[in-house]
Amino acid sequence: MKILKKTLLFILILLLISQFFGPDKNEGSITSIDAFIAETNPPTEVRKILTESCFDCHSNVTKYPWYNNITPINYWLDSHVKDGKKHLNFSKWNEYSLKRKEHKMDELYEEVEKGEMPLNSYTWTHSEANLTQEQIDAIVTWGKKVQADYKQQMNAK
To answer: How far is CA 26 from the centre of its chain?
Structure first.
């Protein structure tokens, strides 16, 4: 019993100390998304959807919830953001080639259409990111149009 108490006390102390450490936050400038917005020109409704459902994990600008201050949750959130940015980073849109932009638009609307984005783990705590069929259709329509524009540009070269 004494070993159990000492072990639990050690774990508690370790958890308390760990609260003073955490990963770097993904708090870049909102202007980093401007190139993507200007180039793809999403309608107001789609821009709102992107802001509420995509940018937190797929850009250099994350609005963190209060529970991000709790270790180890902050490390879990950080890994989600890093993984999201690895697949698609709207803040680096102007660095992507035309072919990559076309491919990323294809992936974007397909993931939304299949219901794989936004992630369930995100929508649990961000109910505004739960997409209705109407919102999904708006993303798909816009995404297909932007993708077609990129294809046309590639064919013109």
So the answer is: 11
Cβ atoms of 135 and 49 within 8 Å: the answer is: yes
pTM over 0.85: no
> Is residue 108 within 8 Å of residue 142, measured between CB atoms?
no
**pLDDT 10s per residue in the chain (157 long)?**
688 887 877 777 766 666 666 677 767 777 888 999 999 999 999 999 999 999 988 999 888 777 777 888 788 888 888 999 999 999 999 999 999 999 999 999 999 999 999 988 888 878 888 999 999 999 999 999 999 999 998 888 7
**Nearest CA among 97, 82, 92, 81 for reference residue 34:** 92
Place of tokens 């401007």: 34
Is residue 90 domain-resident?
yes
Sole residue written with tokens 């789609």: 46
Residue 63 counted as domain residue: yes
Instruction: Considering only the C-alpha atoms of the chain, give the largest distance between any 2 of them, rounded to a whole number of Å.
Output: 76
How far is residue 35's CA from residue 41's CA, in Å, rounded to a whole number? 10
| Within-domain flag for 104 | yes
Tell me, yes or no, whether 130 lies in a domain: yes
